[in-house]
Amino acid sequence: MTNTLQEARAMYAKADLLWSRDDVDAALDRMAADITAKLEDSNPLALCVMIGGLIPAGGLLPRLDFPLQIDYIHASRYRGATQGGVLHWIVKPSCSLEDRVVLLIDDILDEGVTLAAIIDYCKAAGAREVYSAVLIEKLHDRKNGLQATFKGLDVEDRYVFGYGMDYKGYFRNAPGIYAVSDKNS
């Protein structure tokens, strides 16, 4: 067992549950209703922002009962770390974005650096409109005005994980939204 795995297990045992699975399901239901009202007649291309957007997209997409296409995009500033660094483009969508309505699905809007870069990329690739759906938005003033079009839940400015968000590569699969406890410090 690695030290990181042991550390992740110890951290999870002390973590604070902020939002339960039921809370997340209710948020996904609300998001789906809002997205449907806005995009159901627009033939959107849903882009899952990997890796964090995988679980929110998996919960959200089956709730969207209208025709859409799905692809993914992968850019990261974290790469297993707990603080963001330089943006790395890993995979760009295989579908053309030209004249498309694009719905980006991601796990969290924190400072918004990655999401803003992906929005800019989609516009430069010819997207007619770009919408963003994030499961979690952190409450702080470091976003430089960026807002998600659709959001599920708010969290205070703490290190959070679960439902796509990770702690050093672990617990993206946690069945709720958790925050690293101050007791872990």
Order of helices and strands: HEHEHEEEHEEEE
Would you identify the regions where 5 or more consecutive residues have pLDDT less than 50?
A: none
Q: How would a crystallographer describe the biggest sheet?
A: 6 strands, mixed
Mean pLDDT: 93
- Let me know the number of strands: 9
User: Mind telling me the CATH class?
Assistant: Alpha Beta
Instruction: Specify the helix fraction band.
Output: 25-40%
Query: Helices and strands: which structural class?
Result: alpha/beta
Distance between the termini: 22 Å
Could you explain how this protein is built, in words?
The chain has 185 residues and is α/β, with parallel strands linked by helices. Helices cover 27% and strands 29% of the residues. It has a single domain, classed as Rossmann fold (3-Layer(aba) Sandwich). 34% of the residues are buried. The strands form 2 sheets. The protein has a 6-stranded mixed β-sheet. The chain has a 3-stranded antiparallel β-sheet with strand order 1-9-8. The two termini are 22 Å apart. The radius of gyration is 16 Å and the shape is globular.
